[in-house]
């Protein structure tokens, strides 16, 4: 069966990374089998959520876990949990926040396009600089918690999480953290709890290779339970962020596989693919190609970056990306521009090629297409 062919949609070789607009990641046969098994019978969804949470928490070694609809849904649910706890009346009140603590203190370095999910729960931000005294002063009776982000594009100066947690906890306020793409390394699944995060959320559909419409909330048992009570199938703000039984089963299996896989062998293969691309672009007049690793604590997957003098080559980076995408087969690269990623510290235009979203043999196809587009010989 070729559902894409039936719909008239051409598939893509994805060298752009685990981007949502590219469908995230590919699931293993084991994950797909778990989802198929879950689809064959009905189950009480609350029982499934609780059982899945217990299994995942045990696998990772944290206090509690909850499967949600995405990391973005996780942000909204974490904010809701801090505002309502397990109080049914407060849960029913959101997103109206009158009488509830609803402000989240956030460092300016951590503001980004994903944090608006917190606003869906009715919460509001109070921005501060990377200043411990400013953080302590901002924490008052209207504060529901502190919001923190780890991401490759959060490159500006910020207070470290352990210090933020220390100050917040002294004031009796929790810290919630967006770590959507912060694996690998696998140790990061438990790291942020050890650094003081009360709740933190990962995407299920990135490096974990679970269902794209899934996310994972980890942390303090009482607050994880509050996330669950705010989530579907309950009538909280998470009702519209529904997680189906198939995705819950799929993410449980994905986490099982991820914590026991041979990460060193996987990294070696990624490095091989990156070097293949550097060799393909190397030696071409006006072209610079180099290995990169994302900024920050996670998503530490090497990738190839390629840039060139557009006047010398006679082709812009955007045109090269377009030609790759319109070729046969279609190849997606990540186009980095100052206009789009300047907030993350980018100062030049480049194409990035990521190794972890490719099937066997596709890295060689990408290498040949890249060299052709840049005017070399395939």
Properties at a glance:
378 residues; alpha/beta; Aspartate Aminotransferase, domain 1; Aspartate Aminotransferase, domain 2; 2 domains; 7-stranded mixed beta sheet; 4-stranded antiparallel beta sheet
Strand and helix layout:
Elements lengths: L2 H5 L4 E3 L14 H11 L5 H16 L3 E5 L2 H14 L3 H6 L9 E5 L9 H4 L3 E5 L3 H7 L4 E7 L11 H10 L4 E4 L9 H7 L4 E5 L11 E5 L1 H10 L14 H16 L2 H19 L5 E6 L10 E6 L1 H4 L3 H10 L3 E3 L1 E3 L1 H4 L8 E4 L8 H12 L5
Parallel strand pairs: 1-11, 3-4, 3-5, 5-6, 6-7
Antiparallel strand pairs: 2-8, 7-8, 9-10, 10-13, 12-13
Describe this structure in words.
It is built from 16 helices and 13 strands. It is of the alpha/beta class and 378 residues long. It has two domains: 3-19 and 262-373, Aspartate Aminotransferase, domain 1 (Alpha-Beta Complex), CATH 3.90.1150.180; 42-260, Aspartate Aminotransferase, domain 2. The protein has a seven-stranded mixed β-sheet, sandwiched between helices. Helix 12 (263-281) runs parallel beside helix 16. The model has no long low-confidence stretch (mean pLDDT 95).
